[in-house]
Amino acid sequence: MQPLSRRVLGSLAVVCLTTTGVSTVAFAGGRDHHPPDQDGKVIATGLNSPRHLTAAPNGDLYVAESGTGGDDCVVLGEEGPVVGEGGSLVPCGSWDPEEHPDWSEVRLGDTGSITKVSRKGGQDRIVTGLPSVDLGGGESTGPSDVSVRGNTLMVTVGLGAPPEMRDAMVQLFDDDTYEDLATVQEISFRGRHRVIIEEFADLAQFETDVNPHPDYLDTNPNAIVRDRHGWLVTDAGGNSVLRLNHGDLSTVGVPPGGMAEAPPFLGLPPGTMIPFEPVPTAAERGPDGAVYVSLLTGFPFPVGGSTIVRIDRHGTVSEWASGLTNVTDLTWANGKLYAVQLANNGLLSEDLTGSLVRVKKGSDTHKVIADDLFAPYGVAVSKGHAYVTTGAVVPGGGEVLRFRLH
């Protein structure tokens, strides 16, 4: 089992996270030879690891920020928190990474937030104090997506670990804030200043009880979108697409994984094929009534290995488009499907240059709408424009860019 949320942002321990010197690369499967729209206008800045975003009917945008972790720190090994010879936890900063390469330090806090970007200009963090986990090197988990319904927001809060890890963090730090990890939170606004935050659904408990993808227990709520009388939710740790209705969760479908050639650093014979997980990152109902799902794909994050799959009303999963790489979000607009590629050249390339593409049904070649984007993650379309979050791995350096769709 891979530790914490590496399925969502990839194995960032081997990915270059610097914001300079990022090269331009073409995504796998080829591209249309039409010049992409590079007139991306920055409409929001200073975001803490922004992930998915949504557009309200009036044009306002809401952005989920995973945050910067916090002051609570624990050393984690493969079996959980590391305990020293005296029975106490190993202090952060006291161990040798070369001696214990499988250990990592995780810092927790309440720095997750939701930012509103007004259609009239300007931005404001309207919700703060949500749980955030800093996994080091810019990789974090926390608020992952937001859906808007009137004066109410539905927010997914990630985890990327077995459900019992949440309970361990709550007990270890005696902080009820961490009980909100791996949940959907309902956030309502009463008047100008009163914000009410309540748990609406517990995906960690659902994973424990149902475990739709039965390899092992893991949960990482990622995307949420309004769908008919409820919501569609993707669990990037549980590898499942779920339906949320009146607080109740049910399984819509479980996308399949695949096989990819093992990277050389694993030391396996050349040509050895290893399995990868699907890692669903977003789901949305299409014009035909089916549910469409973007797949990041897990380690080794094969270039061109990401797909868009279609789930019909019977739960049958079929491939709809291929040739994509590390897809983190999708959205339908005017009968067209748009998707974000986090790393055009794959997460093992040490290059987090990504792109926004328009996906063609049944094809492995897709039209580039915007390229040369640093660590893009979420996309929303409103009034003829696409809005993309970038800098998904940079605390304080995230942005929202706007592109005109032609």
TrEMBL record:
Region Disordered, residue ranges: 129-148
Highest taxon listed in the record's lineage: Bacteria
Signal peptide: 1-28
Signal keyword on record: yes
Alphabetically ordered keywords of this record: Signal
InterPro entries: ScyD/ScyE-like, WD40/YVTN_repeat-like_dom_sf
SUPFAM superfamilies: Calcium-dependent phosphotriesterase
The protein's name in its UniProt record: ScyD/ScyE family protein
